[in-house]
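Here we describe the complex-level prediction in full. Unlike the single-chain runs in Section 2.1, the two entities below were treated as one system.
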Amino acid sequence: MPKTLATFQNVTKTYKQGAVDVHALRGLDLEIHAGELTALVGPSGSGKTTALNMLGALDVPTTGRVTLEGTDLSTLSRKQLSALRRDRIGFVFQAYNLIPVLTAYENAESVLALQGVAPAERRQRVYALLEEMGLKGMEDRRPDQLSGGQQQRVAIARAIAANPAVVLADEPTANVDSETAEMLLDIMQRLNRERGVTFVFSTHDPRVVAHAQRVVRLVDGKVQSDERK
Amino acid sequence: MTGPNLVRLAWRNLWRNTRRTLLTLVAISFGLLMAVLFTALQDRSFSDMIDLAARLHGGHVVVQHPEYLDSPTLDRSVQDAPAKLAAIRALPGVQAAVPRITGNVMVASARGSYGALFIAYDPALESPTTLSFLEGVQGDMLDSADGDGVVLGTRLAKNLGVGIGDKVVYTATDSTGEIVSGLARLRATVGTGAPSLDGALVLLPIESVRRVLGYTPGEVTRIAVFIDDSRNSPRVRDAVNATLTDGAVALTWDEVQPELNGFIAMKVGGARFMELVILILVSASIFNTLFVSVMERTREFGIMLAIGWTPRQVSGLIVLESVWLAISGIVLGAALTTPLYLYLKSHPIDVSAQFAADGAPMEIAGVGIAPVLQVGIFPESVVVIVCAIVLATLLSGLYPAWRAGRTVPVESIRLV
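The structure predicted for the assembly as a whole is:
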């Protein structure tokens, strides 16, 4: 039986959009298991974004509970949430979102620096990671000197450098070509397989779905189907 | 050190929009330049004015009878001047201390008589560095404390219709209330640049006047004390007062000449207002740069907060950017200001044409004003200006920093 990493327990989320209430989640119940590569799929407005935001401790439910490693996220302070995101969650964004004035190395080490890891250890871990990502020799390049695929690989390195409990990936292949997308997916699959990194994707991309071990389909803010391969 | 290198990151962020940063730095530099030059003109002008007033009147610190300031009559004198002078000259910061008898006299010639102010001094002890009038003398200086010479203001000599070698009679009320007179021969005239003084100035040898007034040896109306820096007047006054045991009091130049002090205070107040305006303009420029920069980077701050930066770290980054702006602006400002300052220091600007259109010299509170603009800034003024700019820069960055720290990641980034 796989270990439960995170849970959504009857989670609802209602936004105000002008005078209109928008129900993004309508009683979502879901468990994310450690070591799995899970894809959240579904049409626009199905609640993928909101679910990922909540799992990333960026948003809070209107009702219900979201837990990560047994901790109810709604009980944490702003500072505790910052620390949780820093130490236990990795983020890979659709538009890479590297800090433009930092080099590839500096971007990748930024979370380790936030954690206070010693410079020598940071250097060792990040250089190894960048080499693993096929970015050896590009450590001193800034994001605008890297291709989209290279930037996304730096983003992945940043996300996993601190050995988080889960990496949340937002349409990680949306802005890259097919070849690069395959390469990125191979990398993430390898990290999942060899390092046991837990990935949760939000995606429309069938290639991502093809690499996932589990596919959760959301419709109207609820789980419509949950399939394991 | 834990955490990211915020100092380095802030520096790099500053140069993301080079043009905007350069424009802001120019604004800070220009503000610094204006503030320094403006203050340098003031500091030099007021310092010169105070020094001149000291040399025209009773020094930076004056020792006199406690009631002499209220009514400067000759019966309000100070005794035992030699001992007092010796004690005062030994004090740190004192450059010179000289005895004087000053008061009102009636000066008469064959043509008429005029009321005047007399200063009786010892020619052996005084020079233009203690008595400004001595540098404008035309004729033979007084050469003895006990001679029969007199020096008159140019306008007074003209009014009296006397020339070099002519006799004049001066009449005063002595310490007992008796009318006493002395005869003197005009040796020179003096032009001070201050019309009121030129029409009422009489310089006399101190021993001769002491004899005419019936003063005892060592009796004077004033001891004029000159110091190296007029800003130290209160400290020297207190030190002098500590040496006085017979009721005589020491006063600073501004206590003796409140009208000059009032004029300077008024001008300083106006200058402070101008400096505040400059500071506000500089602050507005810095605020604009930082605020626009923060608004442009909202998404980036959201990402940073999402990956584990704390709001305090994000705010701190913006504060550091404002610190870098301040440091860079001050360095650039110093590079621009220093050559101009040094040039103006060695090349005073002659404004005599604008300053005295009618050709008459100008005076303020009895002090003649030189028609040249000279700069000279006090070190503490530089410190105040730099601190004010740093403070303005930091304050300008506070709101943008707060905004950056308040960024809500989920609202600023599109996660899915």
